[in-house]
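Z., the sequence and structure:
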Amino acid sequence: MARYLTTIPSSLTQDQAFAYMADLHNFAKWDKGVVKVVQAEGSGAGLGTVYDVTVKGLGKSTSTLRYTTTEYDEFSNILVRGVNTLFTSVDRITIHKTAEGCKVIYDATLTANWVITPLNLVLGAVFNKIGDTATSGLRKALA
């Protein structure tokens, strides 16, 4: 299992940042590793919504994880869980109001499944690089 944790200050209001982060379509706007996002169930953001998030793999390959919103506390907390045969990703997004706007805390874990479980031993280094790139894009999006 690999974990990536980042905190991003934003001039957006807590409500604005929450709305942006809760809509997983926006992942493709700030994370260069996301190729496309398609909502599979539900309409807009909310508890129980399901998104198919296609990410870049090795070379020109892609992989799609099915993300389900399992927690949705309006304006403060979102938990989404993405799964495919190779990986499970659990992403918690917490948003706190600040004097300048808000801060967004993104806490993600990635676990290799099934036959690639041994990759969990080295997954952290790769996940940190992916996370750093995504954080850079998210800082720009939340500015």
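Strands lie at 2-10, 34-41, 50-56, 62-73, 77-83, 87-98, 101-112. The radius of gyration is 15 Å.

Let me know what you think.
H.
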